[in-house]
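Progress narrative, work stream C.
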Amino acid sequence: MTRPEHTESLHFMKWHGAGNDFVMIDSRGRAPIVSRELAAALGDRHRGVGFDQLAEIRTSDVADIDLDFWNADGSRAGACGNATRCVARYMMDRARTDRLTIRTSRGILEARSEGELVTVNMGQPQLTWRDVPLAGDVDLQHLPLDGDPVAVGMGNPHCVFFVEDAEAVDVAGIGPRFEKDPLFPEATNVEFAEVRARDEIRMRVWERGTGITLACGSGACATAVAAAQRGLTDRKVRMEVDGGWLTLDWREDGVWMTGPTSFIFEAELTPAFLDAL
């Protein structure tokens, strides 16, 4: 059976938050558009558009919007903090408001505009082995892996290593090995954190399903939680990532993340591109 050809193009936007880049598709008022095949094709930086994650904005009956996330390899992502902030900026500017509620797989998140920056509550960290999830009941503060990492869930699993010099870490060599470690049945993001002071961290990241990225919102949250749990920092820190700076504040109601957002361009996917999927 021959598939019908597409007769219409598909609008999308490109944004980034601290260098963490995203494609955003607004499908409110219609059925979800994004599939694994479309996400993977769009995520190809040579034959598609290229992104760290894709965010699809959908109509919500319990919040201002619903959000779904996809990785560059076409797999689903449970959370994406910097994409959430970028979508929040887009929606708040359109609605001329400084607050927004967003439903993700993490639940209903609250976003706020703070001048040129956007803050989002990424929710409480997941701190049991089943919730991360891990393959078994182990000490999350001291995983039985080389390097003594910490496990934290923030909608995505995270494996946080504390290192003396983040710049010296071979992220491309080490990251993939731990991403697929059997201890993480759903694979994991891998963070390498250098604690500079009680209120400052340098972090680099390998994201599952994508690779090295210039920033990772849920990874920044997980790193701040892991550092505070180990007593290395206070619960509010500034964090330098490869693409800039973020502020993390682990409060009673969740981990609040603040940072910049940037609109890059908007364009149309051609019917020919869609037909080739």
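Work stream C, second folded protein:
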Amino acid sequence: MLDIIKKAAINAMDASNPVIVQPGTVVSINPLEVRLDQRLTLSEAFLIVPESLTRYEIDLSHVHKLSGSPDTEKALTDKIVIREGLAVGDAVILLRVQGGQKYVVLDKAVSG
């Protein structure tokens, strides 16, 4: 009887596909693709990417009007990159969502 209960519990756990932590590697950015292993590459449709792993830049371009002159002078014309986001070759930590249909890109993995 105990063996039957253990077997039923194991089967229930396997069927539910609990959350699993897996390493991956970014192989493409546009569209986003992450390779889990040699036989499985996840497309963007299967990935949930947090804002902290997306590119974020601020446009600082503006113009100064000089006093006593109708002319204006460009002060800054560049953008500043605050976060680079994911890049090809980045090692990432993935969480497989229960059910196995989606993966959350938790963070970049660094060695050290």
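The longest strand covers residues 20-28. No further action is required on this item.
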